[in-house]
Each structure stands twice: as structure tokens, then as C-alpha cells.
Design goal:
six-stranded antiparallel sheet; globular
């Protein structure tokens, strides 16, 4: 069964750690007023590699829902296809687009939210960022 693909336009791209090669992206979903997701969910980005093969990678959304945009934090991975495709400026400048499907996942806070402790390292920080933005707007 084919999944509905959305197009997202890159609105902002910041390198937040040159040592770790970590990037923060702000994406605007085209053609919709609101991109509905819950903090803690992820999207699956889709692109064609140099050999013509379609590649799909899951990225946790690093923001709370807000209109038609979402944020990602991505670490560049040596010899990785997708993270490098996103992080390397010549390949993906501001204004460029990606295709994705989602949101997916069930790693979301249940309401009513009671006492919670968030613990994350490295790649696990993105959903925590979304949770805190949602809880403390």
C-alpha cells in the first residue's frame, strides 16, 4: 500500500555543533495549513541515491506541533547517505525540498500528563525537545 507523500521546503538550516556535525532544520510542509502530529512522533524522509535506489530514513520530529512546520535535528554520519544529503549545503540549500511520509510512531505522552522524567542522550534528544516545547509553550 502506497503511503501519502508530502513535500517539505527547507526554511532554515543551522549547524549547531561543528565537532559533532549536528544540524537543526526547520521544514514547512507545502500544500497544508496544518501538519498534524504529536510530540514524540517521527517522519520518514524519502530520496533517490546516486545509484537510482529509493532510500527511506526515519527522523524524530524535534518540535511540538505548530502550524504547517516541523523541526529535525540530524547528525551527519560518515558514509551515510541521508544524513549527508541533508547536512551538506551544496546538496540541500535553504529553499530545497524533500519528500516524506508520516507522522508515525507511538512514543508520545499520554494525557493527562502526570509527573514525568525525561532522560536522553545523543540521538534520543529530538523527541524530548518536542515534549518540552509542547508542555511549556
Amino acid at each position: 500500500m502506497a503511503r501519502e507523500l508530502y513535500t517539505a521546503r527547507l526554511a532554515r538550516k543551522d549547524c549547531i555543533s561543528e565537532v559533532a556535525q549536528c544540524y537543526h532544520f526547520l521544514w514547512v510542509v507545502e500544500g497544508v495549513e496544518t501538519f498534524n502530529f504529536r510530540a514524540g512522533q517521527f517522519i520518514s524522509a524519502v530520496a533517490q541515491d546516486a545509484n537510482g535506489k529509493m532510500q527511506t530514513r526515519a527522523y524524530s520530529i524535534a518540535s511540538a506541533p505548530s502550524g504547517n512546520h516541523f523541526e529535525l535535528c540530524v547528525n551527519r554520519v560518515e558514509n551515510g547517505f541521508f544524513s549527508n544529503h541533508l547536512a551538506d549545503l551544496p546538496d540541500l540549500p535553504v529553499g530545497a525540498t524533500i519528500q516524506f511520509h508520516g507522522p508515525h510512531g507511538h512514543f508520545v505522552l499520554q494525557e493527562p500528563v502526570t509527573d514525568s522524567i525525561f532522560v536522553a542522550t545523543g540521538t534520543g534528544i529530538a523527541p524530548m525537545r518536542g515534549y518540552t516545547q509542547w508542555l511549556f509553550p
